[in-house]
User: What shape does this take?
Amino acid sequence: MGDEVSPLAKQPTTRQLVMWAGAVGDYQPIHYDKDFAQSRGLSGVIVHGQLVGAFLGQLMTDWIGEQGILRKLSCSYKGMNYPGEVLTLRGKVTKKYVEDGQHCVECSLWAENSRGEKTASGMAIVILPSKG
Amino acid sequence: MAEGSLDLERLKAKLGVEWEPWSYPIERGMVRRFARAVGDPNPRWQEGTVAPPTFVLAIGFEQFVDEVMSLAAFGTVLMGGTELECYHPIKPGDEITVVFKISSLREREGKMGRMAFMTFDSTYKNQGQELVARCRQMVIGY
Assistant: This one.
């Protein structure tokens, strides 16, 4: 309990936002047009919330390896992330239990920016091949 | 329509009602493009043999946003949160059918005028009718 998930650092660029827009089909201009973003009350172009969700997914799949299964991933996007900023994805084990013969590990997850602000937080449940 | 006002009647009329299913053939290139966009070097996704769990987020998303924007004239939609449950891996060659529904809707005054806080639930089935994933998205429209 309290074990740390190996952290993952990301620094999404505007180029990466364009790649994400294309990969998922999210073409909202708040993610590429600064003037538009400001007209919508944002201080600039923002990182897609779901890209941060996908970063948290990578945090977990990196940690559990090929034999582990990511069963549940949830996160809420609490603050804006801006391209160029370093985001660190972190997690901590909160619970280990066996359900239907499967070894489950529950983790709390979050993303923090370089000012230490948690811009997203959530949880994951993974299934590990043997007792984790 | 006046700035800051929202017409949510068409969305309200859809509360709890499943939308018509949309089907997508999953191609290796889609999986690779997704992994590259995340910047995830994992060879399993980069080679496109299997999709990462969060690939579910890409399935039908463009059509979903288009539909939300056509039901209510939002200037912007922001994602407030995501809950994803994965039951089976998705692989290239699969045909995934997604069904969305709006489960809740409430309005609140925000700094940009009236804002709508919506919850959407979606289910994803493969060509064998197996449930591969469920997703709940919290979406803010204004």
